[in-house]
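Second attempt. The first submission of Transposase had a stray character pasted in from the spreadsheet, which I only caught after the job came back as garbage. Lesson logged: always re-copy from the clean sequence file. Corrected sequence (71 aa) follows.
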Amino acid sequence: MNVLINHKTQETNRLEGASKAIANNIQMHIEFLEKQVKEIEQLINSHIKNNKDLHDKAMLLESIPGVGAKT
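This time the job returned cleanly.
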């Protein structure tokens, strides 16, 4: 998933200097990457939710101040 996030950052940086013709394609790619990240996050969350051991461990970790699903 980090690879997708890094690609999105790269594309966002490319977008800043792109011509209008290219900017549309870059924006579409950014939206595609965002969708992929959301789908992967949903799959991970679903897997954790459906696995009692993982769910219990996730809840324990998230009970620590400053620790959340992404940290």
